[in-house]
Amino acid sequence: MSFVRGRPCVLTVDAFGTLFYPRQPIGQQYAETARMHGLSGFTNHEVEASFRKAFKHEKKEHPNYGKAVIKSTFSAVLPNSALVPEGLVASLLHRFSSNEGYQIHGDVIPFFKQLKHCRHDTKGTSGRKLHLPQAQVGVISNSDDRIPAILASFGIQVNNRRYGSDTPISPARTFDIDWVTMSYDVGFEKPDKRIFDAAKSLSGVAAENNSLYLHIGDDLVEDYDGARGAGWQSLLLDRDGNYNDDAAKAERVKDLNSLLQRLTEQE
Known about the structure:
The protein is an alpha/beta fold.
């Protein structure tokens, strides 16, 4: 499938890794926060290993896994008699619902700024060839329900529309992101075709040509292959050149500005 036959009417992006990433390793942030609550007797490495194990288990068992992951992580590194303080749970939930726990990639804010201009600048006064006045912008994420709050903490304007909600899409395209599709709401994760179908239904766009749906993300299997398996166009975001032989045929960009350039080339 060649890249973008025509202007996309729905453009979606992955969240974790694509738009933001942890300020420090999550295990380190967990351990440092726990010490602030008077807990000790563990190393950052032990907490990181415990977190990864708990995350893998709880993500499969419980879609709203945030609280469960925290308790499972520390239950494995604290003495049997020690309880995980509720204050610690609350602190970590707050930390990882905002820019306190995450850092945004440097190309993200300029990308949304330029994209919003493209969606409003129907007369081409910006000098760019790319104009997407009818395009919707969404997020598709394997996550619980904290994604909108995290994005908003960086100043990104996110509409409240999500899968299962009745919040309408703003016809004036006043938001940076029109809606968010999370596995928490859908019950299926990328690369499952059903989460892409959920995003498509959430958009309310009945495009006859699936190539008018474009998804970009930093995971070869979940984002690139998942979207193409659902019949969408897709691009692999490979900022650090991490994909080599295993993604030789994948169409990729090195940053989000390159995505806008690629779209412009199609004009």
